[in-house]
């Protein structure tokens, strides 16, 4: 997306709003609750930012309105790093300073949301899908690993792999909900291999060989989980506790999707409470 005109200094600032918090009982909420207070508060601030720009991309009105609001977020992040935070970025001031969060990662998240806002994504090629995953998931991971305290090099690699693993899991879990929005994140190449060279969400989800396409993405997600676990197993458990919980909880979804299959009607896969308790018992205690 080409950035639109930046917010001018003469525009009035929007009133500060209470930051969004993750849903109580979610795997993210549980993982973050186990962090020390400063890390937890920093993650909640990052979450609130991600939630705000995601809401713009999905439910922010007409496309030109969404684009303009995302551009205002770009300007607000620039102002934050210039030492002029506006009310809605005030909660990020401390985390940016304390944990060295990088401006380009916040901007990458906005770039990812802009991909959804400017047009409904339908069967992107694999390179575009990977770029999307990097922006909406791995960029969040790059912010997160600095808060968790991982060293730079393994932290960046973990963000790369775990971010993609989680996002591909989301894509596979949400194919029906995304289709209702006119979106299809399954990549173009495997769809073309089953004869869909100009797919629509409806034609892809109704295709008798849909399972072949989803199986390829399942395997790709699994490879990223495997790479993420290899990294986490070499790093201090205290610094990897939260991503371990997130990775293990989301992997339960991937396993459930593989077991359920892709024949319609597809029931939504959600890990059971006992399975999530097992994740906590394995990974929450350092």
From TrEMBL:
The protein's matches in InterPro entries, at most eight in alphabetical order, are given as:
Isoprenoid_synthase_dom_sf (IPR008949), SQ_synth_HpnD-like (IPR017828), Squ/phyt_synthse (IPR002060), Squalene/phytoene_synthase_CS (IPR019845), Trans_IPPS_bact-type (IPR044843), Trans_IPPS_HH (IPR033904)
Return the annotated region ranges for Disordered.
1-20
User: Which Pfam family name is an example for this entry?
Assistant: SQS_PSY
Extract the SUPFAM superfamilies matched here: Terpenoid synthases
Q: Which PANTHER family match?
A: BIFUNCTIONAL LYCOPENE CYCLASE/PHYTOENE SYNTHASE
Query: For this chain's UniProt record, which GO biological process terms are given?
Result: carotenoid biosynthetic process
Organism name: Methylobacterium tarhaniae
Look up keyword Nucleotide-binding and say if it applies.
no
Give UniProt keywords alphabetically. Transferase
Identify the PROSITE patterns for this entry: SQUALEN_PHYTOEN_SYN_1, SQUALEN_PHYTOEN_SYN_2
Q: What is the lineage of its organism?
A: Bacteria, Pseudomonadati, Pseudomonadota, Alphaproteobacteria, Hyphomicrobiales
Q: Which domain of life is it from?
A: Bacteria
Question: Which interval of the chain is the signal sequence?
Answer: none
Q: What is this protein called?
A: Phytoene synthase
GO molecular function terms attached to this record: geranylgeranyl diphosphate synthase activity; squalene synthase [NAD(P)H] activity
């Amino acid at each position: 997306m080409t950035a639109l005109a930046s917010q001018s200094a003469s525009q009035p600032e929007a009133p500060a709003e209470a930051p969004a918090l993750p849903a109580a009982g979610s795997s993210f909420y549980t993982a973050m609750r186990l962090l020390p207070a400063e890390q937890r508060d920093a993650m909640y601030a990052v979450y609130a930012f991600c939630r705000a720009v995601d809401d713009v991309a999905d439910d922010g009105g007409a496309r030109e309105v969404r684009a303009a609001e995302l551009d205002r977020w770009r300007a607000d992040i620039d102002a934050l790093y210039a030492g002029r935070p506006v009310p809605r970025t005030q909660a990020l001031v401390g985390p940016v300073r304390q944990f060295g969060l990088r401006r380009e990662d916040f901007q990458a998240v906005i770039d990812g949301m802009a991909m959804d806002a400017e047009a409904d994504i339908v069967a992107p090629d694999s390179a575009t899908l990977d770029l999307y995953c990097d922006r909406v998931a791995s960029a969040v991971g790059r912010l997160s690993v600095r808060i968790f305290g991982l060293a730079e090099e393994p932290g960046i690699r973990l963000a790369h792999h775990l971010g993609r693993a989680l996002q591909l899991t989301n894509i596979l879990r949400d194919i029906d909900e995304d289709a209702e929005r006119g979106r299809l994140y399954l990549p173009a190449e495997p769809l073309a291999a089953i004869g869909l060279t100009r797919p629509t969400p409806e034609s892809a989800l109704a295709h008798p060989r849909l399972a072949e396409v989803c199986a390829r993405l399942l395997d790709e997600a699994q490879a990223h989980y495997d790479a993420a676990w290899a990294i986490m197993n070499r790093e201090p458990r205290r610094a990897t506790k939260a991503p371990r919980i997130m990775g293990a909880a989301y992997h339960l979804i991937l396993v459930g999707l593989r077991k359920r299959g892709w024949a319609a009607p597809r029931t939504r896969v959600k890990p059971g409470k006992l399975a999530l308790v097992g994740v906590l018992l394995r990974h929450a205690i350092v």
